[in-house]
Structure formats: structure tokens, C-alpha cells
Specification:
49% strand; four-stranded antiparallel beta sheet; mainly beta
Length: 309
Amino acid sequence: MKDNTLKGQSSYRRLPGGNAAILVLMAAGLSVIFAATAPSGEAGKCKQITFDPSFDYHCKWSPDGKQIAFASQRSGAPKIYVIPVDSGEARPVETGLSGDHHIGWSPDGKQIVFDANETNGPPNIWILTLDNGQVRKLLPDRGPNFHASWSPDGKWIAFASGRRGNIDIWKVRTDGTNPVQLTTDAEIDHHPQWSPDGRFLVFASFRTGNRDVWIMSSEGGQERQMTRYSGKDDHACFSPDGSLIAFTSDRGGKEDIWIMPVDSGSATCLTVEGKNAWPSWSPDGARLVHSSNRDGQMDLYVIPISCDN
């Protein structure tokens, strides 16, 4: 990873009142403290940004930091919506397809890649141009192809595919050419996400008998297991500086958002109330958006993360 990647050990504790978590990463004599605050009724804490009684999930922060795209079942079948981060109403993004979800932004924020159901077929990957509403199919085969993620340089899309019988990680040029298989394990590999420098992919795999988080080279190979919990670790994504990953885990008895250093260290829980999943970093690394049912329904929340040296 990058030279500025944090290395060392981590410790964790909750603040009095149970409404915040602190992660202390100690590397080369430097203590870096990350604090994530759960809802306590105070301004500037965890902010709810959707309020629909249905199911909002698979959220992704836009590259300019102003919008969040997400999937929602508020109109029945899953559909893509976009909402301003600071204020405003969610608006639907029309694709003309069914079952739209697993969203990713292009680096310039002008397009969205997503998977949706083929007519009478498995899911496949599509690209939507936001300014004109044009939708094109990325891959010519019928898949299943899903869980797409756009590379930081805009040239590749990583995805999960069962085109050869098993679910593995692949990448393909954004024009749909030159598909490259990156994993070949007999178990399921899915949910790939790029590192900020494009050199690595983080993904979830069942290859150890349970769902864990792994990292590999974006060229294939150099696979390294990140988590070793006998449960569900999934939905992992790199922080904008590449030093941390956030992910969903049920290791605490329910699904929560966890964070850990890329190079070494233990995982730390950032959420307290309700079920929490599908984290996505803001471009400046100061906040995480995720889906939570802490108020009884699955809506989107933003967690502020502060960093003090």
C-alpha cells in the first residue's frame, strides 16, 4: 500500500454513556485517535438523512462529496435514488430496468455502474450516464455479473461473476472489453472495492468456511486474509487515504460498522444502536454513510469521524 499507511497496534473503548467509540492506532510512536459518535440527540452527531418506512441500503458517496446514491425499495422493487448530503429530498434515477442495486460512481461523478435483472435472466451490469439518462449494458454475456466497482483511474470495473460456474472476482474495461479473471477459488468471492491508488482490491470470500474480508492485487494474486471471525464480515471499503477499511460484521451479536487498519491491528466497532451495514466513506475521509434500523426502519445515516494527532 501507500508509504503513509498506518502500521502498528490498535485498541478500543466506548465513551461514557455508550454513545461513542474511540479507536486508537499506534504507529511509529504516533497515536491517531478516530472517534465515531452514535446518536445522542446532540447536534453534530450521527445524522439521519433518509426517513422512508421502506428499506434504504447499498449507499455510495459521490466523488464530489455532495450526494449519496443508494438503493431503496420504497417504490416496490429495488431502485436507485440520489440524495444531497446536507439537505433535500431523495430523487429516483430512472434506468428502465428491474432490481437496480450494488451501485458505484465513476471517478468524475458523471456515471453510475450498477447491477440489475436481465429480462427472464440473471443479474447483469449496466452503466447509466446521469446527464442524459442513457443506459448501456457493460457485458455481452448473461452472467450472472454483479457487485460492480469503478477503478480510481476510470479505466476498469471490478465485479463478481459466475460466468464460469463459480462466483469469482473479475475486472473489465469500461467499454466491456478485455475481461480478466482475478480469483479462482472454489468458494464464493464477491463485493470487490478498489483501493484509492488502484493497486489493490478488497473483497469478501467464503473460502475459509465463513465470510471474511480479503485484500489482493488489482492485477490478481497477493491475496491476504484481513478478518478471521467465524461469522459474517462483508461490504468492505478503503478509506480515501488507503490506510483503513470499514466493513459490516455481526461479530458483536448483530450487524455493525467496523473499522481496522489495512496493514495490521484489530477491528473496532463504530456503531452502537440497531442493525448497521453497507458503509461508504466521504471523499475527505471525515464521515461514513451507512444503512441502519436504529429508529425501527432501514434508513441512511452519516457518522462523523474525527482525527486528532
